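Troubleshooting log. The previous structure file for this entry was overwritten by mistake, so regenerating from the original sequence record. Sequence copied from the archived sheet and checked twice against the printout by T.R.
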Amino acid sequence: MFMLILLMLMLLPTTSAFNLQATRYPSSSSSALIACYAAKEMTYEQQNKNSTQIFSRRKLLLRGGGLWTSGMLGYGSGTIDRALAYTIQKVEPDETKIYAEAQKVGNGGRPLRVLWLGSGNMNSLFKNVYFREGNEVIALDLQQPTIKDVSVATTYASEHGYKLRFEQGDATHLKFTDGTFDVVVCSMFLCQDFNPEVVVSEIRRVLKPGGRFGFFEHVEDIDKVIVGKVFGERSVIRVQHYPEKFNVMAGVVRKV
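Regenerated output below.
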């Protein structure tokens, strides 16, 4: 067995070190959201200097009895019960496309009610975030943006054909009743100083049956929370991750 592992190590291509440590930032606030985005923009060299847990992709890790190498799970006799029922697409996740996919809910062409969590100052509307024309979007964050930021964002939304309003709130205790929204989306939000399972459970609760959740995150293995613990494997529409190149996992799931 030792010789087999040694042989596999010799055959694996050399790749740069990659930080697999899940990053958490304090409090659900705009500044914390900015910190999450800043981490996404860091070069791998910067991440490696700041990280306390780094390993080369040439190394092999044993996780839950499965053999993991270069981001892929290897399944063999006696190593793991079964493979995942969903496929993780090895591509660079695109935030705009993820939001667009999340809003493809079959509702007879009626406008969708969308909850945008961790909206911060809402400046991401102008470059990354997409909302479909006709939809009603509620932007929610623990920290209140400035009056100017709200005015600029709502004007932009109106010019692009959808309604936007801001509400202050805590994602760990959403104030909405069950089944309120057709869609929930968030970006670089689940990395903060709360239990992501609590937040994702709240997201599922406020979604209507068949409603969709679109996520764009850099927390390691966040699909194991979203899919594995809360929504279930039958919920998956798509999950995207390319760990050798991009420290981002994104996807769309639905409430089944």
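Residues 12-35, 39-82 have pLDDT under 50 and may be disordered. Archived copy saved in two places this time.
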